[in-house]
Amino acid sequence: MNPLFLILITPFIGALAALVAPKKTRPYIFSGVLALETALAVILSRGMSTSRPASIKIDFSRWLDISFSADGLSTFVALVFSFCGLLICLFSLSQAQELLEKKHFYAWMSLFTGAVVAALFSTNLILLFFFLETAALCVLIEAGVYGREELKFKIKNLFVSIFSLLLIVISLVYIYFNNSTLQFDLLAARPLNIFIAFLLCLALLLKTAQAAYLSARGLYWQAALPQAVFLGTGVMTCLSAYIFARVFLLTFGDPALFYEITAWTGVILLFGGAAFAWLARDIKKIIYFCAFSQFGYILLSLSSRSDVSFRSALVYLAAQALALSGLFLCVDRVIQRTGKKNADELGGLIKYMPYTAAGFLMCTFSIVGIPPFLGFWPKFMNVLSSVQEGHIALEAMAVAGALWTLFYLVRLFNKVFLGEAAACIWQDRPNFADIIVLVIAGLCLVLGLLPGMSFDFLKFFIKI
Amino acid sequence: MKAYLFLLFILPIITGAALLLIRPAGIRQKAALTALFAALVCSVFICTKLPAAVAIKVFSDYSAILGANRLSGFILVLINLFGLLITLYSTAYTRVQSSRVYFSYLLALVAFSNLAALSADFITLVFSWGATLAILYVLMGAGRGAGKALSIVGFGDFSFLFGACLFMFSSGSAIMPEGLGLALNTPLNWACFILMLAGAFAKAGCMPLHTWVPDVAQEAPITSMALLPASLDKLLGIYLLARVCTDFFVLNNFALGLLLLTGGITIIVAVMMALVQHDLRRLFAFHSISQVGYMVLGFGTGTAIGVAAGLFHMLNNTMYKSGLFLSGGAVAERKNTFDLEKLGGLAKFMPLVFCCALIFSLSISGIPPFNGFVSKWLLYSSVLAGLSSAQSLALRLVFIFALAAAMFGSVLTLASFIKFIHSVFLGQDNSKGAHPVKDAPWSMKLPLVVLSGFCVLLGLVPNLFLKGVFEPWMGRQVSFITGWGPVAALMALSLALFIGFIVRRIRRKENLRRDSSFIGGEPPDIAAGFPGTEFYKSVEQGFWLKKFYRFAGFEGLDFYNLVNIFFKTAAYIVKGIVVALAFPLDLAAGILATLLKKNVRHKNTVS
Questions:
Q1: How many Å lie between the alpha carbon of A276 and the closest alpha carbon of chain B?
Q2: Quick one: average pLDDT of B366-376?
Q3: Of all helices (H) and strands (E), which one includes residue B64?
Q4: What is the sign of the dihedral through the CA atoms of B346, B350, B354 and B360?
Q5: Which of A415, B353, B373, B517: disulfide with A343, CB 3.0–4.6 Å?
Q6: Residues A339/A333, Cβ–Cβ less than 8 Å
Q7: Which residues of chain B make contact with A152, given a CB cutoff of 8 A?
Q8: Other Cβ atoms within 10 Å of B154 Cβ, number
């Protein structure tokens, strides 16, 4: 059986199963889907060394080629996404009871997973953006956008959705008329109009921002569910980074301007995310904006043309996915225990939640890029190689962005965990959720002390 | 040799990780002491096999190059020695002795500090340099003061990281040069220099990146203060400064003037702040900052003797500064306070601690025959040497300012420590009716004795460092320019004391009138005595000095607050731009929503 076929079909079967299976089994079905996806990604990665990577082709019509192929980049991102998703899922098993009340939650999450995986393994632009739209739609539905009372909010989201869809359609039509194909391998090294590149970039950013923001806001302004937040924010940013790499850097011919666009988009996101994180008071919003800021950092890494930077970008994608998962989970623990999400109303939690505090701190250090945590190596190697190419101003901004990240995350830690206890809660006993957080934090530390494990591991996937 | 170099990093790390699994506190402490002793022996062994270098492949894009020369080998020995002494002290310090994680962090800190000293390439140095930042935060108690330290030292570390990247770009190599550095003749090289300087200053606690030191002093355990700002951070920061000023760059007059000004201002401002402190920890913290100024001054002279003075002062400072913090900790362990107004008369209860504290106080004040005198004398000599060779008038004025600042700083340091000794050990015993104070345990006294012994030894035999370490590393000779050495100065001081003794004996024979005294018609309460904290009240209240203290304490001058204001302003600007860009969408959605609502209401009305 073709592992690629299995990895594509499993989430859709999982979605069906989650619809019909008894309520109590649904969290486990979804966990099983993610575990299976992780295992299949590992199996696919072993095929990277062969000369014929896994692929599937369905002859649908003369004009539309439905084909999927697994290469190093897509397999690596799929592995990162499914592994982090699995950890989040295991963490949330303790909250499964609340989630069971939400209609079709696990079905939508499985469908989202399937859409993301299908997007990763797509071999043409139309499939890629189709599955991206599907993933974004799943997030919108799960965030309860269409159930909201507020009309203005619904209209704004509709505008953004339609506008970004329009941009994508215009771009794809233009590309098809100029090249008579939308296949990645046939578009390789062909030029792309700068204006169309700008439209695609804008559409991608709008789609990502919308899906991520809505998942972070949560259903009817309630505390966001950890899966929804991670999958909506973390995965969308990972997926967008992948699409940037795939479309702009690995497919079309590389006018220097593509790299400039990617770099400056990265800088804007880096500082924009940091600015909003600085001003936010809602603790999950701070982490959401932090995720955007780190997405900008990944784009900045991708914009450098060296192999070292490209590898660093991918390692950082994995590092920030891991560390962001940890941060989201810690924030979720805090909200669950205190019932509060405003940082100004919290404080002194380190006495009651020491494990959560330790996990938060370690994930913060990894995100910021402080050694010996995992986030340091890709950030530093990227700065080093980009400076070697002469991008000094850009990397100065990258370092300034990292410093800003340090300031607001440490401020968040101080406000939430230090000082006088604002709420009277009992001493936390370590439970399974804490173990997951500490596992994530531990991975950030161990992989940082052994950077060869991550950089050389990447060589299985990408022969650079 | 590869094994020994690697062992200095691996052994403390693995032991630290293993300690997390050990429950009994006694076994944890013994294991930590054993590991550090082994590391110390290893570092001494490496010093006998210098120079040494080895490359270790970490991953495909990077191989770490570890190496040791005279200077870095010497730094290694000091790191492990201080680690061992402070660990021994910590076994009796209540706040940390039974902590599950403290000794693990301490070992990790020693491991990364060793790695930093052994680094022969920039990548390894940046990695190990930054790793000490995370450990600094947790050892400082992970409180608000530690958060400030993390932010400021983090700023320094990121600056150093970027500076290192620019240096590698400019020089074309990742290997740290040993001599023949970059000339400061391009903006890029200047940027490298300033960024690396920021890294060294933040770590060492020099102005303007110093404000974390006094804030963290009040929260952190005294052992962490003795370990970090007093010794390891100083060692690493000044080691980096030495490499920057001697190996990485060739300094021109402007750079030298910058260093001299920074050093001079740091000395004066910090010692003035120390003079009016009532909390023992803040007093020591400000002196710690002030002493860094001397080191920076030494490098700013641009002479071999100045570099020797800077490095020697770094060595001496780690000895007496750590000793002072540990003495303060021994006192606080018994009296449960660091407030000078609540201490007093402890000399009779803790005689050995008192003697050691007195030695440290005289050393830091630059009194012969102690080590502080030698390094300060070398410094004055180097400033005079630099002054005589300075070409421009502006540079000469800066040298004169530096000399005046250094000398005046020493005087004020002595004044400040007279206050300390009087407040804590002399004066009235304020424990009225309370249980008599017990002496410190041997595990606290032993490190004090060792450190004070070094203060005396290095004061009497400074050539142990100058001829044994500095001259082989620098390849140049150093001698006291004016012929004054510690022995000559000691003889002169002894003569002065003898003359003073004779004069006092003679004057005692004169008739002195004794009478009773009254205040407001009642006999004064002399039980409280004349507290040391009142010594410099008049200084604090003086017209110009009052303005100075108000200015120095102004929060707007705190680098940390300035950065926060900058980020806040930038955040509001960015938010404003985004809101402005999103305004059309908001407007359109609002109009449409209103129209739709009106339409629905109209339909409802009609139906």
A1: 7
A2: 87
A3: strand B62-68
A4: negative
A5: A415
A6: no
A7: 589-590, 593
A8: 23
Taken in order B166, B172, B175, B177, is the CA torsion positive or negative? negative
pLDDT digits (tens, 9 = 90+) for B167-184: 999 988 888 888 778 888
Q: CA of B56, closest CA in chain A: separation in Å?
A: 12
Cα–Cα distance measured from residue B60 to residue A128, given in angstroms and rounded to the nearest whole number: 33
Alpha-carbon distance of A364 to B313, in angstroms, equals 37
* Cα of B434 vs its chain's centroid, Å: 36
User: Cβ separation of A376 and B127 shorter than 8 Å?
Assistant: yes
User: Is residue B604 predicted with pLDDT exceeding 70?
Assistant: no
Spatial neighbors of B561 by CB under 8 A, at least 6 apart, are B555
CA–CA distance, B404 with B384 (Å, rounded to integer): 11
Name the region of B344 (left: φ>0; alpha: ψ -120 to 50; beta: rest).
Answer: left
pLDDT for residue B159: 93
Instruction: Return left, alpha or beta for B141; rule: phi > 0 is left, psi -120 to 50 is alpha, else beta.
Output: left
Give which of A307, A370, A386, A413 to mutate to test B binding, by max B Cβ within 10 Å: A370
Neighboring chain A residues of B169 at a CB cutoff of 8 Å: 387-388, 390, 392
> In Å, how far from its chain's centre is CA B293?
10
Comparing CA positions, the residue from A400, A366, A364, A394 lying closest to residue A382 is A394
Strands A55-59 and A65-69: antiparallel
Q: Of A105 and B541, which is predicted with more confidence? A: A105
Q: What are phi and psi of B523, to 5 degrees?
A: -65, 140
Q: What is the ipTM of this complex?
A: 0.86
Q: How confident is the model at residue B482 (pLDDT cuts 50, 70, 90)?
A: low
Q: How many angstroms separate the CA atoms of B228 and A392, rounded?
A: 33
pLDDT tens per residue across span A431-460: 777 888 888 899 888 888 888 877 777 766
Residue B379 is encoded by which pair of tokens? 């410094």
| Helix, strand, or coil (residue A188) | coil
Q: What amino acid occupies position A313?
A: A
DSSP string, A256-284: HHHHHHHHHHHHHHHHHHHHHHHH--BHH
User: Measured between beta carbons, which residues in chain A are less than 8 angstroms from residue B142?
Assistant: 350, 361, 418
Tell me how far CA of residue B598 lies from CA of B132, B521, B595, B602, in angstroms. 64, 90, 5, 6
Smallest Cβ–Cβ distance between A410 and the set B123, B151, B570 belongs to: B151
Measured distance CA(B104)–CA(B94) in Å, rounded = 17
* Torsion angle of C-alpha atoms B599, A210, A273, A199, degrees rounded to 10: -100
Burial class (CB in 10 A: 0-12, 13-18, 19+), A180: exposed
Spatial separation of the C-alpha atoms in residues A282 and B253, rounded to whole Å = 52
**Residue B162 is nearest to which of A308, A396, A410, comparing CB atoms?**
A396
Q: Are A334 and A349 in contact (CB under 8 A)?
A: yes
Within 8 A by CB and 6+ apart from B283, the residues are: B274, B277, B340, B416, B420
User: Does pLDDT of B206 surpass 70?
Assistant: yes
The answer to whether the Cβ–Cβ distance between A159 and B588 falls below 8 Å is yes
Query: B476-482 long-range contacts, Cβ below 8 Å, gap at least 24?
Result: B476/B304, B477/B304, B478/B304, B478/B305, B478/B308, B478/B378, B479/B305, B480/B377, B480/B378, B480/B381, B481/B305, B481/B381, B481/B384, B481/B385, B482/B381, B482/B384
CB distance A370–B133 less than 8 Å? Answer: yes
